[in-house]
RNA sequence: GCGGGUGUGGCGGAAUUGGCAGACGCGCUAGAUUUAGGAUCUAGUGUCUCUUGACGUGGGGGUUCAAGUCCCUCCACCCGCACCA
């Protein structure tokens, strides 16, 4: 007989809701554990089988921690601003708010049907004005501290659609929708000064228990590099420029300079003979997107400006070129080129036949750039020195002579924070007619998004808000007129701090009660997909550090331990996608196999961080295991099986039970759910072989199963005669002494190969063990006529005889 | 190109500090049972060898009494970044 999952799952979900079983007490006396999922964007497609993987992992962890006596915060919410809802609104004329609300309802139903132990009293929705009030509040704080500023930045402008596009909406220089041309157009944008935090974001990675790959990605993204900034005079002009280099030691080998095509000095220094060539080149570059400039540029291109820079080390004239391999956004947008010791400069010099001068010995600069370390040559006071020392000496010389300075540069850019969109948090800024700009005062927050009759592009590149009356404001005191900022925040904004609000979700007076934050921060475990490795996790860390600086949060870092769940692939080992028709819908599985089976299967398929293909057969196997458990506990009449007896006598199951408790507890703690579950299976297999099973073991087993398959476990717990939910029952403990048997099996090897096995008392001495091994008949036979050279004895494990 | 990771049966995957390779599940084989089942139970299942045994963790080499695990080298695949001076 198998259990009726539809009945049982409904029954216990109702019970939990009615009894508020998972309500978290913010200020309880218990030790606190905060287990967080990356909250989802509630898309119209509904839940994907990938979602429950991470959610089940944190749920198992949370449920086990509750049973171990911790107060657990395990919340869920909705990252509900975002492009799809806006696009839907533009396409259909419907309201993005309604669309979003509908999607959330679907997601919530689906998530509830999976039996996760969330405290739904703490549900958060980033589009709720009571929530985004505080997102806006944080923005005004950033603005006050000078960390939010406006700058002219190129955006992807699509004239045909009359709108600005996000990078991911531009494919090969055309709009994803409609394939219209997209051009780069400078517009005034809000920027957040994340670069001020670059060093701290980098350094504090050290103390985090995160996958090394993610930390590395963040390190690369921040891209700290040390070097020097060198000032160059321009021959015949009263102008100077600076160039950043990590190899100031090669300054004597700098034979030309290159500016980014957009470099502001180009206009001033270009000679009349070269003007046409330079303009033509710049025009060509302008139509290329960033992607094309970087991706397709294998061959070096450029144009000579006609001007010369003076090498400050040797006063030699260096022709100044422009080329798109130099990026305006990094360093100062100008470089000194050392073709002998830099591959890019070498390629460029070859293409345009520029001089190559060796200053580091050891390579063959007639054939290729030499980038390794070596003794310096042709370098005056650096001659003979190796790289590190030469760099130090050169920086010293530059600083002494005022020609340059040691400098650290980052790849990380400031965060482009505005979006020309309707469906996002309004940026709470007013631009006054006198040209000044003020933040909306805290008492006027939230600045709510107005309802529009129709969401459609403004046509000017501004957000749809630009055409509504909402933008017009008048200062009640002075009567001055103003215009609201029409840009909204990016989707990242709401997710930068949601984990703080879960701690105190309904606080009307502050972002969260500092006392409560102190109880719960930092987050003990944070699980989500690796696609957020850089942006979300870096932005959230940045805001958190800022909030720490202004005294709002008590910790420097938000997420102590991070884990990335792997992807669930389709049966053919390919990504699930609608077009391949291999998408598995959780609703179907919940209805056919039950939520417990889905949870169990997703945890059993493989390690949590691995990408594993879905298997319907594997899913069936998981259900079969739960049925096996059920049949072991419950007989045909629907009451507890006769095999289960109330006894304290020692039974053959004693050892395997204690082993199971030990392994499952450790494995679940370390998120090794696949191996923990396999141990639960071992216990059940052994129990099937036994005539009688002590009830205490079954009670313990059901407790250990309950985090994985909570509905079934609650049902069995009730049948076993317990009245309350299993949620707060004490987690089983094991007795180490029960794990070792009196007799152990010893492997006897000859030359490292297993020849036989013997049983001996567990505390037998080394000498005795060796003797027993040597006396063994089979061994005697095998070593006859051979010389025993050495015997290695590992007590409790093996004896290895070296004989030949 | 740079950085990170992964290679173990027919498949998903297990294997403390080097100490019985293949736990557990899927699949497969045989038997039992059932009116029937894609149900259930029991046993078996790395490869070759009818036995003894030999071989086996991507390939090659090394250290060791003993290597999936440590070292060198090569190969394949996956992820991220990609002219960042």
TrEMBL record:
Entry-linked Pfam families: Anticodon_1, tRNA-synt_1, tRNA-synt_1_2, tRNA-synt_1g
Disordered, as annotated region: 459-486
InterPro entries linked to this entry: aa-tRNA-synth_I_CS, aa-tRNA-synth_Ia, Leu-tRNA-ligase, Leu_tRNA-synth_edit, M/V/L/I-tRNA-synth_anticd-bd, Methionyl/Leucyl_tRNA_Synth, Rossmann-like_a/b/a_fold, tRNAsynth_Ia_anticodon-bd
Motif placement: 'KMSKS' region: 575-579
Gene Ontology molecular function: aminoacyl-tRNA deacylase activity; ATP binding; leucine-tRNA ligase activity
Residue sites binding ATP per the record: 578
Lineage: Bacteria, Bacillati, Bacillota, Bacilli, Bacillales
Reactions catalysed according to its record: tRNA(Leu) + L-leucine + ATP = L-leucyl-tRNA(Leu) + AMP + diphosphate
EC number: 6.1.1.4
CDD domains: Anticodon_Ia_Leu_BEm, LeuRS_core
GO cellular component, one term: cytosol
Protein family membership: Belongs to the class-I aminoacyl-tRNA synthetase family.
Domain called Aminoacyl-tRNA synthetase class Ia: residue spans: 411-603
Name under which the protein is recorded: Leucine--tRNA ligase
Domain (Leucyl-tRNA synthetase editing): residue spans on this chain: 219-399
Species per Swiss-Prot/TrEMBL record: Lentibacillus salicampi
Localization annotation: Cytoplasm
NCBIfam families membership: leuS_bact
Segments forming domain Methionyl/Leucyl tRNA synthetase: 39-170
Predominant localisation class: cytoplasm
Top-tier EC class: ligase
